[in-house]
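Reopening this one. Same input as before:
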Amino acid sequence: MRDTEKTRRSIVEAAIALFVTEGIDGTTTRAIAERARVSEGLLYRYFPGKERMAWEIFRENYLAYSGEVAAILDARRPFAETVDAVLRYFARAFDQEPMRFRYLLMTQHNFIARITAEMGSPGRLIEFYLKGAIKRGECRVPNAPLATAILAGPLLQSASAIVSGALAGPLARWIDAIAAATIGALTARR
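Same output, byte for byte:
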């Protein structure tokens, strides 16, 4: 890895940690630079400002999930197995990179509307998959955006409960129950 890539990664990791613990508004570029062990001037060579940094970190990390989600959705498994695999993938991501996942959870409402269809986001990939599953009669929720919310809801709420301390981690500990509830909700006869 080149020095510029290491420096950028150090800045991003410092920013994520501070954004999660202090909030974006409560974090200064000076604090990010200090934590990353770079000068504040160098930080500005990588990001023009804190708000732009927060957006770019969200976009890059959120879209990084797209490749794996696409591979899961393209595997041509039965519907329940596909949903289960998607949920298990995100549970592993939460458990393996908790700060990254927490950052995405806490900033999604600020930035998700900026993600365009052309970006190929994991949410849009899942929605497209569910649209086909509805047409095939595999998913009984009549609306793909609603089905996407139902798929994500139990997992994200459980992750949030772990973050708040209301539920003991790791998320993998609860994935069987989360998957069963989610698949049940998506396939229940109406």
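So the earlier flakiness isn't reproducible anymore. For the record, The mean pLDDT is 95.
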